[in-house]
Amino acid sequence: EEAILEILTAALDRGWTNLKLYFMVGLPGETMDDVHSIIGLVTKIRHLGQKFRLQISTSTFIPKPHTPCQWLAQETEEQLLPKYDILKQGLRRERVRFSWSDPKISQIEAALSRGDRRLGKVIYHAWQLGCKFDAWSEHFNYQRWLDSFKQYELDPSFYANRERDLDEILPWDHIDVGVTPEFLKREYHNLWQEKETPDCHHGKCNGCGLQRWQPICQDKYKMREAFPP
Ligand code: SF4
Predict the structure, then answer these.
(1) Residues 6 or more apart from 110 whose CB is under 8 A from it?
(2) Pocket of ligand 1 (CB under 6 A)
(3) In this structure, which residue's CA is closest to atom 7 in ligand 1?
(4) What are the domain boundaries of the chain?
(5) DSSP of 131-179, one letter per residue?
(6) Which helix (H) or strand (E) holds 185?
(7) pLDDT tens profile 47-57
(8) pLDDT for 52-101, tens place per residue?
(9) Which InterPro entries does the record cross-reference, listed alphabetically (predicted)?
(10) Which of 5, 26, 132, 151 could disulfide-link to 75, CB 3.0 to 4.6 Å?
């Protein structure tokens, strides 16, 4: 928070008059206090001066494949809406513009991100029903997507809002992106223990798996093997 305020102060001193900040809602372990702290930070930023406008954009966390969050459930609309209500209420301030992502769009996005091959038919059917330019909220039609999932006896919440067991076989497990599932599982546990993994650009190799492909990593990895953490 201090670093953000320091950077924004420097930007304002240099004459910037429009500031835009992005926040993510629905992160693992997030509490209502965390949501309130967004309002607290924005309030502090507003007090940095009078001559600038603030744009606050929030988006919903989407647990993506090939990340340590790939096993997590996305928060449901029922969990997300009270958070967005708090933000809408708390950020209705002079010189502040607030935008947020519709949890329904985020759910479909999460379902498509983590879907299996059955979703090919769902997407095709949704397109036939007229789903196009869905990233533009005025074109997004949730019911059409639900109908398309239903057509194939599927449900977006199965893909988006379901926590996976760490042993579950995932639709993308056969794709090797370099980072190993073992590393992702280690990071998954670190996430819950709030243990930070140091940036390997500036420190030791974390053994993410890329040492199998990247010559530049191999020397660092050898050091790791010689001096394990
Ligand atoms: S140095 Fe290479 S192998 Fe080691 S953690 Fe970084 S990217 Fe992964």
Answers:
(1) 62, 63, 74, 156, 159, 160, 161
(2) 200, 205-208, 210-211, 214, 217, 220-221
(3) 210
(4) 1-101, 104-164, 169-229
(5) --STTSTTT--HHHHHHHHHHTT--HHHHHS-PPPTTSPPTTTT---SS
(6) helix 181-192
(7) 998 889 999 99
(8) 999 999 999 999 999 999 999 999 999 999 999 999 999 988 889 999 99
(9) rSAM_sf
(10) 26
